[in-house]
Amino acid sequence: MGWLNALAVLQAHVSHNELSGLPASVTGWIFSTYAFLTLSCGVQAGPIFDAYDVKLLIIPGSIGMVVMTMILSVCKEFYHFFLTFSILGGLSSSLLFNPCIATTGQWFNRRRALATGIVCTAGGIGGIVFPLMILYGEPRIGFSWSIRIIGFVCTISSIFACLLIKKRLPHNKTAGAQMDFKALLDLKYALTTLAIFLAEFAVFVPYSYISSYALYVGWDTQMALLMNSLLNAGAIPGRAIPGFMADRLGAFNVFMVTTLACATLILALWYTAAESRAAVISFTVLFGFFSGATIALTPVCVSRVCRIEDYGKRSGTTFMIASIGVLVGTPIAGTIIKANAGSYGGIIVFSGTMYAAATATLYWARGIAAGWGLKVII
Which residues form the Major facilitator superfamily (MFS) profile domain (predicted)? Predict the structure, then answer.
């Protein structure tokens, strides 16, 4: 799952090399479609997970990710990247993301948030390692071989995953492979899903454009691409620590604090950073930390407003809806950049506003689900 956290370095590379003749509003579809399929196809993976053995999902998903990475190493044209990374990679990733999170939720109850957070740190580790392998491998062995080596790493990781992951609960044969529209009639679940939609809408803007922003303000290529690794370095503790705190203070409470912190960092620090390296680096690491909860706590929050037996379908439905924001978020950001003559100020305000709206919606959902008091834990 490290590719989902390495979008910025790929976006920056292809935009300045293979696809340098295309605007960001076009190349952005490559990466937003990958993230969209990763989340949206969970609506099918979720019910299949409920009804059958998890290995029916993770084995083909693992094979697909390895094949995608190897083919990615020889891509040159827009349609090459779109068919390989966006379609094959996104579909394969969706077979891994939802089932791995759902499996963790079955094995833990009291420490579910912490366990989920620890599992999600793996994506952050990949988000550090993959960009560094590209950054330091490309000048020595070339971009293509750097990607192939990442493919070998994915192969080894996938073998261990397929051997170790298994379900705890019995199969639920009544699970249907469709969206659970009736669940949206439950206001607390619907508001939780809306809040996650807004947060996912916002989070992939910095994740996709932080390296391109660094290039825009005049940084050298090596330092600009390194920002993706710094972002994920912050995200590793940012996924585990909020999970640990959520088990004690409540997942909704911790999620609200982190989304508010993200909105503040984007609007107060990134927007005013300009060319200041200290400010941009500080924002990158701090945002990585606080945004980690956007990935780690979303499935936990869903589990707080549904029965554990319905978790696979409910989480798949939530991620399907959230994926719409992911799909259009990056291209919209690219269009805003183009409309502002290359300036990144517009997308910074756009992302920060979405995070602020997510905070307000989470508070609303929490109030309906458990009450409005400050000491309420859910």
Answer: 1-369
